Amino acid sequence: MGVRLLSGGRKECVLSPSARSKPAPPKRRATINDIARLAEVSKKTVSRVINQSPFVKEDTRQRIHEIMNELGYVPDPQARGLAFRRSFLIGLVYDNPNAQFVVSAQQGVLEGVRGSGYEIVLHPCDRLAKNFLPEVMAFVERQKLYGVVLLPPVSENNKLVEMLRERNVHYVRVASAVIDGPAHLIVSNDRLATSEAATHLAMLGHTRIGFISGPPGFRSGKERREGFVEGLKAHGIDLPEAYVAQGAYTYESGIEAALQLLAQKPRPTAIFAANDEMAAGVYEAARKLGVAIPRDLSIVGFDDTPVSSRLWPPLTTVRWPLVEMGRAAAQKLLRAESGTPPAAADARPFSAHLVVRESTAAAK
Amino acid sequence: MGVRLLSGGRKECVLSPSARSKPAPPKRRATINDIARLAEVSKKTVSRVINQSPFVKEDTRQRIHEIMNELGYVPDPQARGLAFRRSFLIGLVYDNPNAQFVVSAQQGVLEGVRGSGYEIVLHPCDRLAKNFLPEVMAFVERQKLYGVVLLPPVSENNKLVEMLRERNVHYVRVASAVIDGPAHLIVSNDRLATSEAATHLAMLGHTRIGFISGPPGFRSGKERREGFVEGLKAHGIDLPEAYVAQGAYTYESGIEAALQLLAQKPRPTAIFAANDEMAAGVYEAARKLGVAIPRDLSIVGFDDTPVSSRLWPPLTTVRWPLVEMGRAAAQKLLRAESGTPPAAADARPFSAHLVVRESTAAAK
DNA sequence: CTGAAAGCGCTTACAG
DNA sequence: CTGAAAGCGCTTACAG
After folding, report:
1. Is residue B240 classed exposed, middle or buried when 0-12, 13-18 and 19+ CB atoms within 10 A define those classes?
2. Which whole number is the average pLDDT over B273-288?
């Protein structure tokens, strides 16, 4: 039985298109009241169906569901939110300068909420600004967010997380080390992956190996450095200070750092850069100095962004499952709502793995 | 006079931290009722101040503003939205496969709404899916969006735009050609820029020039092709079919297309690729065939994404002011609200310009 | 298992 | 210039 809603909210049979000359009046969306009236129950009962309360007779629920489907009824998230004193929005809070990083994580988060009725609201921020904390919290409170996904490096800010906890805002942090409980963390094993990269270079016979670090304040930088040192040590190789250069995760900083390392005597025969952008800078520096890759210099990066396969020779790097991590972050956030008990798998780190291409070769 | 709100909504003097041992009770956000009570006016008058009605006595307005500032009052967008029957959310609808493109446009849009009280909700879509239109419209209606920014190529879909118009949803399209009125369009002059690229190659003495097109269905592809042909024609150069290869805006498609073009006899001495990703593919194809860049082959791209300066030699390409366009799109959308009359500048296309680097040289 | 009343924090429509 | 009432579309708290 086709029913439709007019502006007045009255019931009416649907007329076949040929029976009416004018276009249909602007359709009004069905509300909980329409459903209640048609189902001949109170709106509270409809509300119970929406919220999956167990205290509704089975056939009542069925009938209500049918009417909802027929009218294409979807509860208004705004009205529901107002009554619930929260919204159905999830904030994606980030301050990472790397476009590819943000896009990949974002794509994953979007996949993770698809079909859930939640939406993703973007919130770039600047963790170094004076009003950083109040600014982010104002956003969270103004929108009464259900929760937030925090990308690194802002995910590493414990003060922010403390304030979110205080206000009972759900959150999941994406990070490179275990900095929170499993319910609040999506972690990649950067340390292990970087150690793997170190082993790769050691096995190729390199002993003079340079390292370009991430900027201070990035936990990923710390993890990658420590993992690299550990990996080298396992093969009896040292990382002297002279072979370490500070980078900033940018192309330009990679060039600078590489020029510094390649000026050392003896010159390193391999360089690990803590991300691909800096590794691209190493190529540029090597070209300037006439150093052939990989004959005179092996290079390893981290991220496996598209640029790594556009470089020549293609870059050996560490693939980081960012999309998967973003998806898992969103799913973990939503799991908090349904009260799903934490699974053992929740604590499992996502593993990053070395992808060997053509920028590494045996040491001469 | 410091006032603060307790859960009960009563007034209370702020105690100095030392005067109380416990942490403050969870702060309740001030509401329109609190402001009205403290200002001794009706909430309707407060509402008038919020909405900048001219019908409020000046000193009443002042007093209310002071109280709002003191309490840090911000109207609840959810409640306001419910009453207004719309939200303060703007959808960013996109289906572009290029990460860099999305990030740049997104960054611009975020800059454009900053401080406006509006938020950006992401909505990737698939314009080729069967349920594409209903899916996007369901999103728009469910969230009662204030408006949407449409990025290409989905911005070129007239059916979608028609439905948005019907439902009185504000929209701004980002596109490569004049496909809508100035109030709804942010346009770049791809045709002119590509013609500029053609001129550059012609001036270098090239006459056998290959073209790698965008995928069918992208208006930008059409504009770039036509602009390129026009530019060549102005210098008396033809673009025979054999020197045109279909691409898909991806790296891999660039390799394929370039291999096809470089197999022609005589071989073209220059290739224009309709975007940088495909241009990167041309480098790869040239390397495979032992064709030196730019000695044997000049290459021009379009986009000026970061990859263009990571390639060796650095790519001559067309810089496209995507961030600025995103920002302008958001601002244009918000202008519709304040009822600002359209300015003459609204119709002005954003110009893309050639950036000459080292991938182009004189023809031998 | 179901419902009538009150409320979430705002605005519109109508008065004055 | 200002306000009391009703309403936006939902939910909570209380009854039964």
Report:
1. exposed
2. 97
